[in-house]
Each structure stands twice: as structure tokens, then as C-alpha cells.
Amino acid sequence: MDQTPVMTLPRVYPPTPAGRARRIDYRHVIHALAAKPQAFRFSQLRDDLLPTPQYQQLWQRAQQQFEPQQACKWMVSVLRLAYDYDCESPLAAELLQAPLPELNVLQKRFLPHRRPPNTPSRQHAVDTYDQLLNGRWTSQEGLHV
User: Fold this and answer.
1) N or C end of the chain, less CB within 10 A?
2) Which pTM does this prediction carry?
């Protein structure tokens, strides 16, 4: 069997010889957390999930500013924005500059505003469906399909 490295992670060491150290990347679990953001609040791995000291600061500020459930949802949403749009550092830097915005303001500001493409559609005549089911359908150009 051929082995191909997928990623390389730096080794982490515990602060004390008897302690434990973990290397957890939030990117691996962010979509599961987004489905159940309250799991973040009670997770034993919560502090290990925060990627940088800036995100630890954001979590502390979110806990101070919002109700506990809202703080969890806010933090998980920020992590998901960071992952989905590959903007981890700039997002943290911007959010630390001002009071934390409400979640709806944050989403309006950072989620892309995409308009659906203006695709013209044409409704076929009802009898063409009968022709299709009977195997006699022909396209507009006269080609038998």
C-alpha cells in the first residue's frame, strides 16, 4: 500500500513533565460544532480548539458581553467564518479592535452577498411531457431525442 502524508503537525509539549499536551485543529471539527454550538461551551477540549491567543481573547470577551448560549454560538460562528473564508488572522485582528458585534451584524459584514444568477427559464408545454413518457419527444430543432 502506498503511503502519502496528508499533513504535518508540530509536536506540542506539556508545560510540566507530568502534564498533558494536545494538538487539536478546530478545522477538523468546526462543521460538527456549527451544528451544535453549545458543545463548545462544555467541551473539555474547548481551550485547545481556539487556534491562537487572539481567539482566546475573543472567547473571553464573548463570555463577558453575551449570555452563555449566545457566546458559544458567536464563537463557533467566528471560527466557522475563519475556516470557510480562510481569514483566521485578519478576522481576529479586526474583531479585537472594537466591541464585539452581534452575530447577525457579523454575518452581514463577513458573509459574501451573492445574488442568484439571472438564468432564463422556459416552461415546456404539458403535451411534451406526454410525448416524453411515450418515447416520442422531439426537441424544438426537430431532432428526435
Assistant:
1) N
2) 0.69
